[in-house]
Amino acid sequence: MRGPIRQPDPLLVILLLLAFLPRLIWPTLAEFKLDEATVVRRAMEIAWKGALPVAGVGSSIGMANLPLTLYLTAIPLRIWDDPVAAVIFIGLLNGLAVVACYALGKRYFDRATGWIAAFLFAVNPWAILLARKIWARTLPLLTVAFIAALLAFLVRRRQWALVGAWAALAALVGLQLEGIALIPVLVLSLLPFWKEVPLRPLAVGAVIFALALAPYGVHDALHGWPNLRQFWNFARAEEGHFSWDALRYAWILTGSAQIHSMAGVRFIEYLEGLPRLWWLNTGMMGLLALALIHAVLRLVRGTGEERRTFVVLLLCFAVPVALRSRAVESVRLHYLILVYPAVFLLVAALIHGGYRTLPLRYRPAARAVGVLLALLWGGWQLAVVGRLFWFMDRYPTTGGYGIPLKYPREAALEARRLAQGAEVVLLSNGAEPAYEESPAVFDALLFRHPHRLVDGRMSLLTPDAPRVVYIVGPVSPDGDGLGPVQQRLQRMAGVREERAVRMPDGWQYRLFVRERTDREDVLADLTRPAEPPRFANGVALLGYSLPQETTPGATLEVWLAWWVQVGPPPGSDYHFFVHLLDGEGHLRSQHDGAPFPTSAWHAGDLVLSRFTIPIPADLPAGLYEVRTGLYTYPEIQGVPVVDAVGNPAAGDVLLGTVAIR
User: Fold this and answer.
1) In this structure, are residues 658 and 628 in contact, taking their beta carbons and an 8 Å threshold?
2) Which end of the chain has fewer CB atoms at under 10 Å, N or C?
3) Which of these three, 363, 394, 425, is where a domain ends?
4) Rounded CA gap, 568 and 40, in Å?
5) Percent of residues in the chain assigned helix, strand, coil, to nearest 5
């Protein structure tokens, strides 16, 4: 005979909704800038190319992080090769962190303390925003695991839990270098009870920690210790100084203070859409201050178990703050994410501890007030987040939050549909995904589709193929620096424009399809030499555009159409130059650069490149020669023009003369 069906705990249901819904809803509104795109691209290499990196992405201090974030992100991307999969996966892990916070509070305090801590954690706007970032940082779920293992050893006297603390610590360091701050937390937590520390679990844990970090250390040693030296230079930097920023950010992370910075230049408009309840953040900061005092008092007056619990929580707050208080560079808010969930557990212990000190006759009224305050706080915090989500969808280019994943993802999906397996070419502000945002974003979004990245301010690539799709953008309402190349693209006879992906504030990603077997339309309006000059590296100059005259102080715009007859050897790097020379052959102005990265050249490519030569304001009137050529970089060795049999014939090509009026 079956027993009665147990009804779910309403509070637990509410907690689960608050933990997961804000972290999972509208995943395409997640941040997707250079850092996030770099993580996705490198995780894709693990998931789909079998890469096994031993070092991760770079850090703000110049050394590489460990690669655990990349391996973690590769898990969902192997299942679904879309950054949305990573957003959902990391959101789930961070939702679990809230549930784990509840379990931790319930186990080492009581059910009410666990619920209060988890509630504060669940609705916290900064916690929600950081929980949706593909850049995993230090996952609070692992911080909870570290604290839980440490408390299981110190409070519950489970000796082998110490191994779990070491393992969690290794994972935290593997995710992000900020995890190093928890190494002294472990040491200082054990120090007062050193006589109780068993050697075998301590040694096993230390070995696990060392083995987890060993591949990174061996790799660094084999390459001359660049990361260790960078860390040492950071630790002993003379410009290090005391800063209150770390402590200030630790307080800010308790609520929604300064969240308006995510709205960028339109932050006033963001603030105007919310009720003026920002003073609630001050109240929460005050509670944290009281909670720290309460924790210190419990260290003195509490039971043995209380003292051990509060030692760990206080250290988890104080050590990361103290280490970041010596600032060598500007301190960022996300550096202090290690204080989660300790701050919420400390505040919850204060609130429920204060409640239990009340006489019984006052407790019903206190509960009623507490529920009302919780509804006010939770509703306000969720309104702040909801307003931010709406605002970033409505104004995605304000410069604070960055263009959400939604818009470039839509452009990439549409480009892949239009391409029908053909190559996609991105024309944007830059071509280097290692340090330029738009190339990094689309390099990740198009990872499993043939694509190339072109600096649309300088060049227009036409591959040797009957079909190619172009993504141009993001394009501002006034066209910005992409205008000249975009206009060239639109004038080509074989090109048609498709539906643009428009953002509500006027920016857009424009999509074009080129279908044509020949490329005569690319060379239209250009001067075409009867015998195209050929360079020794396999590049031929098929045409150019040169104004007949200009004036001092103006800019001379020169277009070159160059054809890659033979693909360059691996590792080569060629730069172009366009020089303005006077009658005596003296250089008067120039534009040098790599209009299209050599590493991306394919045999058969036809490239239109735009060079802008500033004309000095004091340049005398007269006729001036314009010459062009190539050289290797960084050797600065000229690439000769060759004759029909491949012998060097000249060092550059004379395009013509221009009159300075």
Assistant:
1) no
2) N
3) 394
4) 29
5) 50, 20, 30
C-alpha dihedral sign at 315, 319, 321, 322: positive
Q: Give one word for 35, left, alpha or beta, with left for phi > 0 and alpha for psi -120 to 50.
A: alpha
Instruction: For residue 580, give the nearest of 561, 563, 555 by alpha carbon.
Output: 555
HSE at residue 429, side-chain half, CA atoms within 13 A, is 12
Q: pTM for the full model? A: 0.91
- Return the axis-axis angle of helices 363-394 and 342-357, rounded to nearest 10°: 150
Helix, strand counts (H, E) of the chain: 20, 21
Task: List Cβ neighbours of 273 (8 Å cut-off, separation of 6 or more).
Answer: 387, 391
Which residue's structure tokens are 């003026």?
276
Measured CA to CA, the distance from residue 575 to residue 580 in angstroms comes to 17
143 in a structural domain: yes
Burial zone of 182 (CB within 10 Å; 0-12 exposed, 13-18 middle, 19+ buried):
buried
Question: What DSSP string describes 368-432?
Answer: HHHHHHHHHHHHHHHHHHHHHHHHHHHSTTSSSS-SBTHHHHHHHHHHHHHHTTSEEEEEES-S-
Strands 467-475 and 423-428 come out as parallel
Give Cβ neighbours of residue 651 (< 8 Å, ≥ 6 apart). 629, 638, 640, 641
Distance, in Å, from the CA atom of 103 to the CA atom of 109, rounded to the nearest integer, reads: 10
pLDDT digits (tens, 9 = 90+) for 134-189: 986 668 999 999 999 999 999 999 999 999 999 999 999 999 888 999 999 999 99
Nearest partner of 590 among 553, 616, 623, 561, judged by Cα: 616
- Kindly report each contact of residues 485-494 with a partner whose C-beta sits within 8 Å and lies 24 or more positions away, as own/partner: 485/427, 485/456, 485/457, 485/458, 485/459, 485/460, 485/608, 485/610, 486/427, 486/456, 486/510, 488/460, 488/559, 488/608, 489/427, 489/460, 491/524, 491/525, 492/521, 492/522, 492/524, 493/521, 493/524, 494/521
pLDDT, tens only, 427-482: 999 999 999 999 999 999 999 999 999 999 999 999 999 999 999 989 988 877 78
Residues 42 and 166 in one domain: yes
CA distance 655 to 332: 51
Token couple for 595: 């209009």
Residue 4: inside a domain, yes or no? no
510 within 8 A of 448, measured Cβ to Cβ: no
Whether 197 contacts 162, CB under 8 Å = yes
Helix or strand holding residue 535 (H, E): strand 534-535
Q: Distances from the Cα of 116 to the Cαs of 98, 113, 307, in angstroms?
A: 11, 5, 21
Angle at 133 between CA 128 and CA 134, to 5 degrees: 150
CB 174 within 8 A of CB 212: yes
- Residue 550 and residue 492 share a domain: no
Compute how many other C-beta atoms are within 10 angstroms of the C-beta atom of residue 488.
18
Residue type at position 304: G
Q: How many domains does the chain have?
A: 3
In-domain check, residue 400: no
For position 1, what pLDDT does the model report? 44
Q: Which amino acid is at 277?
A: L
117 close to 102: Cβ distance less than 8 angstroms: yes
d(CA 576, CA 578): 7
Domain that holds residue 584: 528-660
Residues present in the chain in total: 661
Signed CA dihedral, 594, 597, 602, 605: sign only: negative
Closest CA to 526 of 556, 554, 486, 558: 558
Question: Do 424 and 384 fall within a single domain?
Answer: no
d(CA 616, CA 588): 8
pLDDT tens, position by position, 475-514: 988 877 788 999 999 999 989 999 999 999 889 999 999 9
